[in-house]
Amino acid sequence: MNAPASIRPVTLRIAQLGDAVERARIAAYVEEHRDGTPFHLPAWSAAVASGCGQRAHYLVAERGVHGIVGVLPLTELHSPLFGRVLASAGFGVGGGVLADKPEIAHQLGEACWTLAQRLSCPSVELRGGPRPGPEWTVDDTHYLGFERALAADDAAELLAIPRKQRAEVRKSLEADLTVEVGQGDVAVAAHYAVYAESVRNLGTPVFPARLFREVLNEFGPASDVLVVRHRGQAVAAVLSLYWRGTVYPYWGGGTAAARLLRANDRMYFELMRHARERGCARFDFGRSKVGTGAAAFKKNWGFVPTPLTYYDRVANGASIRDANPLNPRYRLQVALWRRLPLAIANRMGPWIAKGLG
Questions:
Q1: Considering 193, 199, 247, 346, which has the largest number of Cβ atoms within 10 A of its Cβ?
Q2: Which SS3 state, helix, strand or coil, does residue 136 take?
């Protein structure tokens, strides 16, 4: 006699992301799961793999007629400078296990660890989701998330911003700035140029341009680029994702001139307006490291920080990979990178950054 469907064993496998039907089934599961994020979508894993040359290993748990009952998107990251790690999700701020039940989360965690050992990855990083088991250490002190509801209109949005920051936004609205939104080559090139300069000024390498193009290609109309210009020159830009009524401004920055022009303030206020017009109700300002200027900037906008919980598992004798530019041991490298000519930083940066994840 066949076992009842409710107690049939769970089968685990690696998804074929090149199969359109497979991807659609997984995306439907992620869409319906209350804890799903854009970083769980097959589109994200595919974009990262193509854009950075890092392999995707997307774990799927299935049970008989129930179909998919859990997923875990994984990226095998390799860096000559920072070593190997299996991350969920690579280059994302979210990820981790999505599962219908705790026991399925545990099975996915074990399958992930077995895969890491097979791939000679001494550590695994899970960014969010449930803790798969006691073998996984908890990290809830390094990163903060910022998210809140969008207001009903521009006037209400301004009032939702604390007084001091609101004054800066009002000044930005009066400045000689223009705004464009799209996915065309001109906008995409402008975004990359601005973003590359922004991260160079912070002392960190820029990601490959292909990563941004692949994300826009994979997410299609659920993504775009917003560019702020001053007298025709791009001074601030952000690449955003739109998913389940939330806008995710993900890769954004400004040139050296942006601060005096208040271009970043204009950029985010205009994105809030644009997101409302697209039907979004929430604004996810992404993650920032505790104690950083980025975290303070988001607090100034009235966003209340929420600690993000990540999990690590490390092989005996190994240590958790640390590619954090705030680590004091990288202080000299960060200072030197800030002084690099932009052309050199843009040439060298992608080779380094594609392995950071």
A1: 247
A2: coil
Nearest CA to 52 out of 209, 211, 224 is that of 211
pLDDT at 270 over 60: yes
Q: What are the tens digits of pLDDT across the range 254-265? A: 999 999 999 999
Q: Architecture of 5-140+309-323 per CATH?
A: 3-Layer(aba) Sandwich (3.40)
Answer for the pair 123, 315: CB distance below 8 angstroms, yes or no.
Answer: yes
- pTM score: 0.92
* CATH 3.40.630.30 applies to domain 145-306: yes
| Domain boundaries, given as residue ranges, for the chain | 5-140+309-323, 145-306
Cis peptide preceding 61, ω within 30 of 0 = no
Q: What is the largest CA-CA distance in the chain?
A: 76
Cβ proximity of 228 and 263 under 8 Å? yes
Q: Do domains 5-140+309-323 and 145-306 have the same CATH topology?
A: yes
